Amino acid sequence: MTKDDKKRIDLGSENIPVIQTIDDIFKTSIQAKSIHDRSRKGATEVFNKVSKIVNKYAKVIDVFIQQQPDITAVVWGSVRFLTQVL
Fold it and tell me: How far is C-alpha 13 from the chain's CA centre?
């Protein structure tokens, strides 16, 4: 890298913290995870509510699917799997 290239890189900006030690990397990763978790909180809450509703009526839907188990069984099986695993 040339000196000009090094001058163009601004490691002291607010978005990119200066990392000098392993502890700095650890702290930065924890900060990034907390920012990510906060941004996904709303989607997680909505999915949990939908999952509870789907699980409430799952047995009834299972009976309907058994009557015509064409492609609907594959789709319903996938939905049911996701609501129980996630």
Answer: 28
